[in-house]
Design a protein that fits this description.
CATH architecture of the largest domain: Orthogonal Bundle
Distance between the termini: 65 Å
CATH class of the largest domain: Mainly Alpha
Number of domains: 2
CATH topology of the largest domain: Endonuclease III, domain 1
GO biological process, one term: mismatch repair
Shape: elongated
Family: Belongs to the Nth/MutY family.
InterPro entries: A/G_AdeGlyc_MutY (IPR005760), DNA_glycosylase (IPR011257), HhH-GPD_domain (IPR003265), HhH_base_excis_C (IPR023170), MIG/MutY (IPR044298), MutY_C (IPR029119), NUDIX_hydrolase-like_dom_sf (IPR015797)
Helix content: 40-55%
Largest sheet: 5 strands, mixed
CATH superfamily of the largest domain: Hypothetical protein, domain 2
Strand content: 5-15%
Structural class: alpha+beta
Keywords: 4Fe-4S, DNA damage, DNA repair, Glycosidase, Hydrolase, Iron, Iron-sulfur, Metal-binding
Oligomer: single chain
Catalytic activity: Hydrolyzes free adenine bases from 7,8-dihydro-8-oxoguanine:adenine mismatched double-stranded DNA, leaving an apurinic site
């Protein structure tokens, strides 16, 4: 039996009953694909249902405020996906009358829709013979065919896309594409795959050569940057505080946070007080308490944030002050959300 037929047979017997598999609605498929980028199914599922409950159609999502979209996305990470999601919904409504394009080329023109997402929508919704290549597919193909080209190199990306097209089942592309992704997620898993029960084990090159744990190959291009965040949690006698919206193109764009004092190292209390005086020259700060003696290290793909929360008691706060019980209305990074769960006033 051919590679693609084995995948289809395995998928028919083992596929999970995921909600987006019961539809060909491009809006729902697109939503699930964007959410599941760099996110496990178990984590993404509640967000998928929550978004459909709040935005049943692409028109509803397009009409929503960015702040509301970011709030619903809170905790899912990689917030550029949420902003692109919102922008794409507007494009579909404004430029395509609320209907998703039905060709790979036109889908690629949508903001935040790359090769993988366009191929997934084209094949699953419109039965177009476009192969998907995501992390799961890279792993299956690299191991089965014994390919050691780095999957994140220009040469590797081209090679695997060509190979994926050669081995796909064009006649059953919808099930095949979902099948090979499912196979990579469940059977040919990143760590400790159950090769003894794999239907492809007789012809898997990596298994024969003892290279299952070595493939796929990925170039290590990420250089981690350490940053030191000091969040200023102001509190006045009226239980009010201050929040600010992050601007620019950096992390957590347009999310809200407590005022941030970034330093070049972890600060002792004396060092913090010294820098605070420079940061807040006109504010009379009373009692100062470091909430977490041990810094919280929040790891992002390219940076590690060493974070401390400083509780600052003040008599007065600016006119932009916010009642403490209103903070939960704002979209915030998960780092702030976790703090709000543990800090009680």
């Amino acid at each position: 039996m051919s590679f693609s037929k084995e995948i289809l047979k395995w998928y028919a017997q083992n596929k999970r009953p995921l909600p987006w598999r019961a539809t060909k609605d491009p809006y729902k498929i697109w939503l699930s694909e964007i959410m599941l980028q760099q996110t496990r199914v178990a984590q993404g599922m509640p967000y998928y249902h929550k978004f459909l409950e709040n935005f049943p159609t692409v028109h509803d999502l397009a009409k929503a405020s960015e702040e509301r979209v970011l709030k619903l996305w809170q905790g899912l990470g990689y917030y550029s996906r949420a902003r692109n999601l919102h922008a794409t919904a507007k494009m579909v409504v404004d430029q395509h009358l609320g209907k998703f394009p039905d060709t790979y080329k036109a889908l690629r023109q949508l903001k935040g829709v790359g090769d993988y997402t366009a191929s997934a929508i084209a094949s699953i919704c419109f039965d177009l013979p476009e192969p998907v290549v995501d992390g799961n597919v890279y792993r299956v193909l690299a191991r089965y065919f014994g390919i050691d080209l780095p999957i994140n190199s220009s040469e590797g990306i081209k090679y695997f896309k060509t190979l994926a097209r050669e081995v796909m089942d064009a006649d059953e592309i919808r099930d095949y594409n979902q099948g090979i992704m499912e196979f990579g997620a469940m059977q040919c898993a990143p760590k400790s795959p159950n090769c003894t029960r794999c239907p492809l084990n007789q012809s898997c090159v990596a298994l024969k050569e003892g290279k299952v744990g070595e493939l796929p190959v990925k170039l290590n291009k990420t250089k981690v940057r350490n940053r030191y965040f000091n969040y200023l949690v102001y509190l006045n006698p009226q239980r009010k505080t201050r929040m600010e919206q992050r601007e620019g193109k950096g992390i957590w764009q347009n999310l809200y946070q407590f005022p941030l004092l970034e330093s070049d190292k972890l600060l002792s209390t004396d060092e913090f007080v010294s820098q605070l005086r420079e940061y807040e020259k006109d504010l009379n700060v009373g009692h100062i308490v470091l909430f977490n003696e041990t810094p919280i290290v929040h790891k992002l793909s390219h940076q590690h944030l060493h974070t401390q929360f400083w509780i600052l008691e003040v008599d007065e706060i600016s006119e932009e002050s916010i009642p403490w019980d209103k903070i939960h209305d704002f979209p915030v990074p998960v780092l702030i959300a976790d703090f709000l769960k543990t800090f009680k006033i």
